[in-house]
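Researcher: Here's a chain I'd like modeled. Treat it as a single chain, no partners, no ligands.
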Amino acid sequence: ELLLAVEPAAAASAARLAPIDVKAKFPVYAVQMRQAAETSEEGEDGLSRFHELDVEFHSLILRESGNELFAALAGTIATVLRGRVELGKYPMKPKPAALDAHDAVADAIAKGEPERARTAMLDIVDEVARALKFF
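Model: Modeled as a single isolated chain. Structure tokens:
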């Protein structure tokens, strides 16, 4: 529930407030995540790398939101994301829709489009909520 409440607002704020050099990192993360997902078919290393990048991606959003409370929650959100993997609540191969949603968040933040970043992040956190059976 914390993830659902915080991440869309953090993504919008990061799109608005993050420095341009930080905004430029998000599309790079999205590309690396997609590459790791594609190599996850070949073994556990790709999937592990995807999860590491996913945690880094979401943590960076929280830290760069300009909101000290959101930034302070980065470790907690990282634990939620890691816990989902440990509990077997994450597919063995990331879904194309999840990769597309990360691409959309990254692009919106990079282009400084807060509402699009919020909406795209809602797609991500809604999928997490369904996987964890919050809805």
